[in-house]
């Protein structure tokens, strides 16, 4: 029989649409199993300072459709230190919290991995990041909403591009991963996609444009912010020199990709994973992220989940698809 009576829940790192749906699922699943739930504000920073709140059914009413996170989020330099993690542990014990559910990405899980190893404290993670770059799940919470936000924005940009015969370079989030750029680029019919994993380079882009149709009314190039060239503005400057006849414009979508109401897919994914996390803790799981692969729940050790998926093999297939469809 599980000794867990009180589960703490926090969100950490960059916010992602669907985090509130995950919090709601954790709280209601905990109540279903007759457990207490303690909300921790501002991620690991709030864990260290003891910024805790009791949560019940009403705490999570009418939040499933809201973006962001009601528990707030923050990055914590102090939690990177053993002394900071010791303070966090003492706060949990003082509040009689027996286990922890953390919602976030690789930074969140890196901290959780150290914490659970140092103090033998039960921790399960939920993959909450728009980048979709964690091992152990087909999709992360927030990714579907983010790529649909990109598609909606680029569809509007294309209206202007076609009206003025312009080439638009659109920068999307993805400092270390090009998965937002890949899927959204396919969805908007981009002429080219530039991502950190593929290393197309400016020369490859120039060749693509030189060999492409000259009679297209508009051209869209999607650039992940972490591409080797250095982002959309750098790409734009090079292309202006190579193609002085083109009317080239740059648009950086930025943090708009993090906001907005979560899609149905993200709400359902977050709800399923939130319940699975609570049940996982009760069944003795710890030091792991719960994900969904091929519609099956999978628990992946933190140190494996944070090894970013190798998108090179994926990107080669997707980029070939872009090349075929951009003719």
Automatic annotation (TrEMBL):
It comes from the Bacteria. The gene is pfkA. ATP binds at residues 14, 75-76, 105-108. One of its GO terms (molecular function) is 6-phosphofructokinase activity. HAMAP family: Phosphofructokinase_I_B1 (MF_00339). It is an enzyme of class 2 (transferase). The active site is at residue 131. Pfam families: PFK. It comes from Pedobacter psychroterrae. GO terms for cellular component: 6-phosphofructokinase complex. This is ATP-dependent 6-phosphofructokinase. GO terms for biological process: canonical glycolysis; fructose 1,6-bisphosphate metabolic process; fructose 6-phosphate metabolic process. Coiled coil: none annotated. It is found in: Cytoplasm. Pathway: Carbohydrate degradation; glycolysis; D-glyceraldehyde 3-phosphate and glycerone phosphate from D-glucose: step 3/4. Its EC number is 2.7.1.11. Mg(2+) binds at residue 106. ADP binds at residues 24-28, 158, 189-191, 216-218. Substrate binds at residues 129-131, 166, 173-175, 225, 249, 255-258. Its cofactor is Mg(2+). Residues 6-280 form the Phosphofructokinase domain. Catalyzes the phosphorylation of D-fructose 6-phosphate to fructose 1,6-bisphosphate by ATP, the first committing step of glycolysis. It catalyses: beta-D-fructose 6-phosphate + ATP = beta-D-fructose 1,6-bisphosphate + ADP + H(+). The keyword Nucleotide-binding applies.
């Amino acid at each position: 029989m599980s000794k867990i009576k009180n589960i703490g829940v926090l969100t950490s790192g960059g916010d992602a649409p669907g985090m509130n749906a995950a919090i709601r699922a954790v709280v209601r699943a905990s109540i279903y199993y007759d457990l207490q739930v303690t909300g921790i504000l501002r991620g690991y920073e709030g864990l260290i300072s003891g910024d805790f709140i009791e949560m019940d059914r009403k705490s999570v009413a009418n939040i499933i459709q809201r973006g962001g996170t009601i528990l707030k989020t923050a990055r914590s330099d102090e939690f990177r230190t053993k002394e900071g993690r010791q303070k966090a542990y003492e706060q949990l014990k003082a509040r009689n919290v027996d286990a922890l559910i953390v919602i976030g990405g690789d930074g969140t899980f890196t901290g959780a991995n150290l914490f659970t190893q140092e103090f033998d404290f039960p921790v399960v993670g939920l993959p909450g990041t728009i980048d979709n770059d964690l091992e152990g799940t087909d999709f992360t919470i927030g990714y579907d909403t983010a790529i649909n936000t990109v598609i909606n924005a680029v569809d509007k940009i294309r209206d202007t591009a076609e009206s003025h015969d312009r080439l638009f370079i659109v920068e999307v989030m993805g400092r270390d991963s090009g998965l937002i750029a890949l899927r959204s680029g396919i969805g908007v019919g981009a002429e080219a996609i530039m991502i950190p994993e593929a290393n197309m380079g400016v020369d490859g882009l120039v060749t693509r444009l030189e060999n492409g149709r000259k009679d297209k009314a508009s051209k869209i190039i999607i650039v992940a912010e972490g591409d080797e060239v250095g982002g959309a503005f750098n790409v734009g400057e090079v292309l202006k020199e190579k193609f002085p006849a083109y009317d080239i414009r740059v648009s950086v979508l930025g943090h708009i990709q993090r906001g907005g109401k979560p899609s149905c897919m993200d709400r359902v994914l977050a709800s399923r994973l939130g319940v699975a996390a609570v049940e996982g803790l009760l069944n003795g799981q710890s030091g792991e992220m719960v994900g969904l692969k091929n519609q099956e729940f999978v628990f992946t050790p933190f140190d494996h989940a944070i090894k970013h998926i190798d998108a090179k093999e994926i990107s080669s297939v997707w980029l070939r698809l872009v090349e075929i469809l951009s003719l």
